[in-house]
Amino acid sequence: MTSEVIVDVSPKTVSIALLEDQRLVEFQREAREEHFSVGNIYLAKVRKLMPGLNACFVNVGFERDAFLHYLDLGPRYHALEKYLELLGNGSKNVSLEKVLKEPDFNREGSIQNTLKVGQELLVQVIKEPINTKGPRLTCEFSFAGRFLVLIPFTDKISVSTKIKSSAERARLKQLVRNIKPHGFGVIIRTVAEGKRVAELDNELKVLVKRWESVIEKVRTARQESQKLPLLTYEETGRTVALLRDLLNPTFENVYINDPHVFEEVKGYVSLIAPESADIVKLYKGNVPIFDNFSVTKQIKTSFGRSVTYKHGAYLVIEQTEALHVIDVNSGNRSKSAEGQETNALDVNLGAADEIARQLRLRDMGGIIVVDFIDMDVPENRQKLYERMVENLRKDRARHSILPLSKFGLMQITRQRVRPAMNVEVDESCPTCGGTGVIKSSLLFTDTLEEKIRMLVCDLRITRFRLYVHPFVAAYLEQGVFSILRLWHLRYGFRFQIIPNQQLAFLQYEFYDAKGREIQMKQAHENVASSRKSTATTVPTV
What percent of the chain has pLDDT over 90? Predict the structure, then answer.
């Protein structure tokens, strides 16, 4: 199996696609101004106590207050509280050893006896805002690296259960015990298997520096009485985080269309895996990067309410407030000659493959209920369950699967730390705006020519690219004396028409030589204003 990562950076969003054998298996899209990602650490204040929930609401700067449950304060909360108190007193170079003797947290306590309104807290985001809910917080901090996870206020060392060799587990534990500072716990990740002490030590020093930078910002905020909430640590970008967790020898290429993100990712890969630095490549083509690697078409076919898979069978995926529901349908699939039971088993096994892919692709979390086609043979029901378990082994999110119930339902729970990915595949008409009535499509080329004339003659812009729907691009370029060639001759220079699969049928976009979109509405207003100004300054004869 080979893997590729395609990163599409636009002015407003960053989209990341993970391909396995050219097939889309993971897709993430986030706004570039998003600041409430999992892993971020804030110095914030308690806004409101909720004794009935044994929780409180904390202001971290989001439109809705973040949620912090009493148990999420963590077993070492008293150590954290004492540590923040020492920092508040102006102490410098406060060692974690000074607070490790603080008593463990009482799990049977209550929020109103532990916190008070207006109290300052150092908190970390563990779940992003979802629907009407704000972020969820914890006071148990962790800093994830490629090989290690650093946890302050403890001395415990844990090893990933996926490392089976007892000798290797003992070796890694001993190495980390010798190099880690006192007062820090460490989780050794699976990819650390076989690594040398120098590699582990380098990463450990980087993670410790991250914690020290957090503490330095807290100390500065206290001394200067800075306004809270304050972001003290921001998790690395989604692209870097994805590579940190997934990078392995099967990765062949990482294509990125933005120079800044390219340098960031290349620098990170050079740090964690110098031998793989060459796989990070800057995409410079004019065709949209997702179109070039056939990602756009896969997105259009993989998202939406209905998803088709092999032999005409399809899934219907519905999201409710409480859970996700998936219905398996055989569709117009031809019946097997061996009977209904065999046909149902074949459809269900194919559905299990596609459902496992959809869970990763859409990042569906919480409770998922799947209604499979009924099967009477117990061996077939067991085979389906084992197939689903096997398919989800590659899923990084924590999950649990129950065997089929008597009603043919399979229940799955999957870790949810951010909203499920929802991509609108239905296109809205950019011309009629939903009215159902548009200008004659025959006049569309006239509209385009008018925009081109405005750019060339009025705005003096001669270097630009025109993006249109692939069908429109084919129409403009067809024949020896194509419409595009006539435009080139008419205006005396050549410009490119580039097909973009993400555009609707009669939608178009102009981009300048630097890759910035030209807002034609604003351009029209500028031209009109210029003409008006000229008219008022010309003297009458």
Answer: 17
